[in-house]
C-alpha cells in the first residue's frame, strides 16, 4: 500500500467551512442520499467509555469513522470524542485517505443541524418567518456550542446569540473560542432566554430536559443534537407534542433518540412517523401555523461520508494547484 494522505484537524477545517458543508449535505439529500438506508452505528465498551464505529457506503466513496467516547474527559480538560475517519474507494475498497475524526464531527453536526433549521425557516407559514436578525439561544458551552454558533452565523449572518452553560469557566472559554462573535450569557435567566429565542440549539450531554417546552415561541425553531440513546434527552414531551417534528432518519430516531422516546409510541411510529431530512430539503414538509418546529438528530454515518468526500476532493484539488 502506498502512503495515504492524512488530513489533520487544521486541514479538515480548511477544506470544509460551514457553508460548504451545509451545501454538501443539502446537495447529497437532493441527489440520492436516503437516510433510511444508512447502516446502524456500532457501539462497543472501551475503558472509561465506548468505541463508536460508523460505516457508510456511497457510489464513489465509502467510509468508516472510528471514534472513542470518554464522558469523563471534559472534566480533565480533554476531548470527549476522539478518533479517525478512513475514506475508501467504493470501486476497489482500497483506502484513499485518513482524516482526524473529531474535527470532522465538529463540523458535520452543526452543518446538518443548521441545514435543517434553515430549511424549516424556509418552510415557515405566513406570519411566522424568522426575523432578519434572529435571536439564537445555545444550550451548551463546549466544542459543539462553538461550532453551532459559527455555523449559525454562516446560515443567518444577522443572528444574535445567547448562551446557557453549566459552568462559568466553560462559558468564558467559549467566549474566547468564538471571538469576535459576541453573545450574552443567559445562564442565570434561561426561562426568559427561551421565551425570547427565535432559534434554540441544544448541544449538551444532558440526561433530562433543558427547559420547559411550553415557553418556546410559536414561530421558533428548535434543534436538539447533543445526545444519543433513548435514556438521554434535551427536550420535554410538552415541546415535542406541540411542535412539527423532523428527524435525520426515522429508523435511527426510533432506535436511538431519547427526545422522542416517550412522546411517540410504537403505534405513532407506525401510523404517523415524523418527516426526515430528505423530506424536509425536498420541500415536502408543511409547517403548521401556531406551532414551533423541532429538528432532532443523533448523528448518522451518511453525513460523515458526504463531509469526508468534500475534504478529500478539496485537498486533492489544492495539491494539484
From TrEMBL:
Transmembrane segments: none annotated. It holds the Pfam family OCD_Mu_crystall. This is Ornithine cyclodeaminase family protein. It comes from Leucobacter iarius.
Amino acid at each position: 500500500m502506498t502512503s495515504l494522505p492524512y488530513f489533520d484537524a487544521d486541514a479538515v477545517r480548511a477544506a470544509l467551512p460551514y457553508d460548504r458543508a451545509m451545501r454538501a449535505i443539502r446537495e447529497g439529500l437532493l441527489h440520492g442520499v436516503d437516510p433510511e438506508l444508512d447502516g446502524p452505528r456500532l457501539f462497543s465498551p472501551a475503558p472509561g467509555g465506548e468505541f463508536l464505529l460508523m460505516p457508510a457506503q456511497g457510489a464513489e466513496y465509502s467510509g468508516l469513522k472510528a471514534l472513542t467516547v470518554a464522558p469523563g474527559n471534559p472534566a480533565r480538560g480533554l476531548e470527549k470524542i476522539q478518533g479517525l475517519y478512513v475514506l475508501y474507494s467504493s470501486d476497489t475498497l482500497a483506502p484513499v485517505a485518513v482524516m482526524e475524526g473529531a474535527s470532522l464531527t465538529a463540523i458535520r453536526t452543526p452543518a446538518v443541524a443548521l441545514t435543517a433549521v434553515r430549511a424549516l425557516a424556509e418552510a415557515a407559514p405566513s406570519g411566522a418567518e424568522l426575523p432578519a436578525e434572529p435571536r439564537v439561544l445555545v444550550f451548551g458551552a463546549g466544542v459543539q456550542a462553538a461550532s453551532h454558533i459559527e455555523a449559525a452565523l454562516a446560515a443567518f449572518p444577522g443572528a444574535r446569540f445567547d448562551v446557557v452553560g453549566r459552568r462559568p469557566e466553560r462559558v468564558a472559554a467559549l467566549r474566547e473560542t468564538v471571538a469576535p462573535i459576541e453573545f450574552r450569557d443567559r445562564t442565570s435567566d434561561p426561562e426568559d432566554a427561551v421565551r425570547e429565542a427565535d432559534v434554540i440549539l441544544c448541544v449538551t450531554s444532558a440526561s433530562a430536559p433543558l427547559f420547559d417546552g411550553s415557553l418556546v415561541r410559536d414561530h421558533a425553531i428548535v434543534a436538539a443534537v447533543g445526545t444519543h440513546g433513548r435514556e438521554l434527552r434535551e427536550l420535554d414531551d410538552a415541546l415535542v407534542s406541540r411542535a412539527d417534528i423532523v428527524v435525520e432518519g426515522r429508523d435511527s430516531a426510533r432506535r436511538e433518540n431519547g427526545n422522542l422516546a416517550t412522546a411517540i409510541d410504537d403505534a405513532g411510529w407506525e401510523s404517523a412517523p415524523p418527516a426526515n431530512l430528505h423530506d424536509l430539503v425536498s420541500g415536502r414538509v408543511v409547517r403548521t401555523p401556531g406551532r414551533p418546529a423541532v429538528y432532532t438528530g443523533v448523528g448518522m454515518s451518511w453525513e460523515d461520508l458526504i463531509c469526508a468526500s468534500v475534504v478529500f476532493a478539496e485537498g486533492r484539488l489544492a495539491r494539484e494547484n
